[in-house]
Amino acid sequence: MQNAELSHYVFMAIAIALEVAANLFIKYSDGFRKRAIGVMGIVSILASFTALSQAVKGIDLSIAYALWGGTGIIFTASAGRVLFKQRLSRMGWSGILVIVLGMITLKLS
């Protein structure tokens, strides 16, 4: 992997981390009752889109969006379990599996 290609995946990792952070901030904002935390969520998602825009300079849009959205969902669901004791049903885990299989299929195509 060349340095330029690697930098696109670094931006992708940053975009994913910021997306998950945005989701957590929104949850912690309690429906925007805690406005400062809600604003941090909005800023995080805007920063996530900024990093995603850099990632798609070197990663096909379909791949980048699938990685960003799918990985964000997986990490957000995991954070929900750890931080908020939220549990997915079997159907929920089946959905996560389909997302992972979809991301792998897109990457291999």
Automatic annotation (TrEMBL):
Location relative to the cell: Cell inner membrane; Cell membrane
TM segment ranges: 6-25, 37-56, 62-84, 91-108
Keywords: Cell inner membrane, Cell membrane, Membrane, Transmembrane, Transmembrane helix
Topology versus the membrane: Multi-pass membrane protein
SUPFAM superfamilies tied to this protein: Multidrug resistance efflux transporter EmrE
Keyword Cell wall biogenesis/degradation: no
Principal localisation: membrane
Subunit structure: Forms a complex with MdtJ.
Family in the record: Belongs to the drug/metabolite transporter (DMT) superfamily. Small multidrug resistance (SMR) (TC 2.A.7.1) family.
Name under which the protein is recorded: Spermidine export protein MdtI
Organism for this UniProt entry: Ottowia thiooxydans
